[in-house]
Design brief:
The structure holds two protein chains of two kinds.
Chain A: E1 3-14, E2 17-29, E3 34-38, H1 45-51, E4 59-68, E5 71-72, E6 89-92, H2 106-116, H3 123-132, H4 149-160, E7 167-171, H5 179-194, E8 200-204, H6 208-214, E9 217-222, E10 225-231, H7 232-237, H8 242-249, E11 300-303, E12 306-308
Parallel strand pairs in A: 3-8, 3-9, 6-7, 7-8
Antiparallel strand pairs in A: 1-2, 1-4, 4-5, 9-10, 10-12, 11-12
Helix pairs in contact in A: 4-5
Chain B: E1 3-14, E2 20-32, E3 37-41, H1 48-55, E4 63-68, E5 71-72, H2 77-82, E6 83-86, H3 100-111, H4 117-130, H5 135-138, H6 148-161, E7 166-170, H7 178-193, E8 197-202, H8 205-211, E9 214-219, E10 222-228, H9 229-234, H10 239-247, H11 265-268, E11 276-279, E12 282-284
Parallel strand pairs in B: 3-8, 3-9, 6-7, 7-8
Antiparallel strand pairs in B: 1-2, 1-4, 4-5, 9-10, 10-12, 11-12
Helix pairs in contact in B: 4-6
The chains are: A alpha/beta, B alpha/beta.
């Protein structure tokens, strides 16, 4: 197991109390595994990604442990995490455009970044990796503003994996891209895993169809908790949690027309995480909800590698 | 035809002294009828949003004409009574210090000053219920207290109160969650049956396909292919359309690699000038300039 997260609780401090963005998340990630993390906005998926690399000032680690390659990640200690960031855990942010220093040409920026981490720039290796994602070498002598969105995104991908981190977190990296660029970026991520530049990856997105193409396992979160985690195919083809089923059913696919088949959204909205109701958090929107749902459902393994938190699954 | 674009071209001047030019829209002609949803599909930089802005009168075309009901489309109160636009980011479309009811009160002041208060309040509530919002939950709230889906629906309700006939929807669902997105799309489809024309601008092919009767594919400012949605998606004639379709991630299939571009239908049929009408209403551009 390259990553083990157990009972992780992260809260946001607000004037009205703590927002329980992550309320007891446990999961494991194997070597070479790509985990797709999906859910609605506000379900805690970005919080999970962030808490594994850097908690911002509003975030508070309330409980739980994170172990990466047998070493515990000191996620609550901003300074101690410095030894891990970029070398062991790395992040590709959602907006690559704001991740690059606009006043430096790319080559100089990469050099400065590596020096700050006590590593030297291996120009040949950098160019080889750029070739792999289809970036021309001239890019190194350009300013970020001279690159297109997809090129910037791929450049940031190359930079953030230069030191071969064990865990890579890709946070909504394809959301702002066109379909053809999206495909190129997603394939490049797969290539990084296959070439061993990163050992395992968490791919945070709200696009289930895209996740299905690159992830080995998909994890669905709902209101700060795990709803379902299963091998990608099983999750898409035979989802067990009612929320996952509704989510998969609401996807418009090429070929589905309003006139022929009307897709339905999920009525209602997720509960406030300021003071979440007891029991199953999907209860109020769930078509199957019954009396037992007033009690919190445990995460159960219903098939090998298929975990569901639902009484009805 | 309600909205008609005739050989519309838009050239931007860029650089320090406007020395260089960029042609954002090249010779585009199409129309939108009442009760019809036309989707405008293209990648970033294809000129789809520029077209939306031209239609809304937010910028002036360099060449060609845009007419609405036979009259030139000009920014102004009369035009905006019929035509409204909604954009991608609902959070920046609202004045953050105005509560939702004030947004509606402003419409009354400028467009329906004669309507009595009580009747107007009833109209607002009806419009909100039409977009499936609970009036008591949204009125009296500031924009930051509402979700993206609620704000986007508020904007549609606002447009409905104006009794508009054409809606230019520019990427209105790209910030929304999968389930909310479907609610907004279903709402548009319902309004369409009441006679609202919609120009649905998007880069998401499956969303355009779900809603639209007709589809227009843009590349670098020019129309590559247009026609009934079923024909364009089911039997794409231009290699670029095929390439786009193959890049869409699908749930139950693997990514297909773009197939061989094939021969250029346009040249095969000996067409020249403008688009070739390959089948009734299904028009395609020459593929040779790029891929043949």
């Amino acid at each position: 197991m390259s990553l083990q997260v157990s009972e992780l609780r992260v809260h946001y401090r607000t004037l009205r109390g703590d927002v329980r963005a992550l309320d007891g998340m446990s999961f494991e990630l194997g070597d070479g595994e790509i985990l797709g993390l999906v859910g609605e906005s506000g379900c805690g998926k970005s919080t999970l990604g962030k808490s594994l690399i850097r908690m911002d000032g509003r975030m508070r680690h309330v409980g739980g442990r994170v172990v990466l390659d047998g070493r515990e990640l000191p996620i609550a200690d901003d300074r101690a995490m410095n030894d891990f960031r970029f070398k062991e855990v790395s992040l590709i942010p959602q907006y690559a455009m704001s991740a690059l220093n606009p006043t430096r040409k790319i080559r100089r920026m990469v050099g400065e970044l590596l020096r700050s981490r006590g590593a030297a720039l291996d120009a040949a290796e950098l160019e080889r990796r750029m070739d792999q994602v289809g970036l021309p070498r001239e890019v190194l002598d350009r300013y970020p503003i001279e690159l297109s969105g997809g090129m910037k995104q791929r450049m940031v991908m190359v930079i953030s994996t230069l030191l071969d981190p064990s865990l890579l977190i890709a946070d909504e990296v394809t959301s702002a891209l066109d379909v053809s660029t999206q495909k190129a970026v997603a394939r490049a991520l797969l290539g990084f895993r296959d070439s061993g530049y990163v050992k395992s990856m968490i791919f945070v997105t709200h696009d289930i169809a895209l996740t299905h193409h690159i992830a080995d396992t998909i994890m669905v979160m709902y209101a700060g908790r795990l709803a379902e985690k299963a091998p990608a195919d099983a999750l898409v083809k035979a989802p067990r949690h009612p929320y996952t089923r509704l989510l998969v059913d609401s996807l418009p696919e090429v070929g589905v027309r309003y006139a022929e088949r009307r897709l339905e959204g999920i009525a209602g909205s997720p509960p406030s995480l300021l003071d979440p109701p007891p029991g199953c958090r999907f209860r109020a929107r769930c078509p199957l909800a019954g009396d037992e749902c007033a009690e919190e459902p445990p995460v159960a393994e219903v098939a090998p590698g298929h975990h569901v938190a639902c009484w009805k699954a | 035809m309600m909205l008609r674009l005739d050989h519309v071209t838009k050239v931007f001047r860029i650089g320090a002294f406007g020395g260089r030019t960029v042609t954002a829209v090249k010779d585009v002609s199409f129309d939108v009828a009442p009760g019809e949803v036309v989707s405008l599909i293209g990648e970033s930089g294809s000129g789809k949003s520029t077209l939306g802005r031209l239609i809304l009168g937010l910028s002036r075309a360099t060449g060609g004409t845009i007419t609405f009901d036979g009259r030139p489309a000009r920014a102004g109160k009369d035009y905006y009574r019929d035509v409204q636009g909604i954009f991608q980011d609902p959070f920046s479309s609202f004045n953050p210090v105005f509560k939702a009811d004030r947004v509606f009160a402003m419409i009354k002041e400028s467009y329906h000053p004669g309507v009595p208060e009580g009747e107007w309040a009833e109209r607002v509530r009806t419009a909100l219920r039409d977009v499936r919002l609970n009036p008591d939950q949204v009125l009296g709230k500031f924009p930051h207290q509402l979700s993206g889906g609620q704000l986007q629906r508020l904007l549609i309700a606002r447009a409905l109160l104006l009794e508009i006939r054409l809606l230019v929807a520019d990427e209105i669902t790209s910030m929304l969650d999968a389930s909310t997105r479907i609610d907004v799309l279903n709402l548009l489809a319902e309004l369409k049956t009441r006679g609202l024309g919609v120009l649905y601008i998007t880069h998401d092919l499956s969303l355009g396909n779900y809603l639209a009767e007709r589809t227009i594919v843009l590349r670098e400012g020019a129309v590559v292919e247009m026609g009934p949605t079923g024909d364009v998606f089911g039997d794409p004639l231009h290699p670029y359309t095929r390439e786009l379709l193959s890049a869409v991630p699908r749930l139950h299939e693997d990514w297909a690699d773009a197939e061989d571009p094939g021969t250029c239908l346009y040249h095969e049929r000996g067409a020249s000038g403008g688009l070739l009408e390959a089948a009734p209403g299904h028009l395609v551009a020459c593929a040779r300039s790029k891929t043949c």
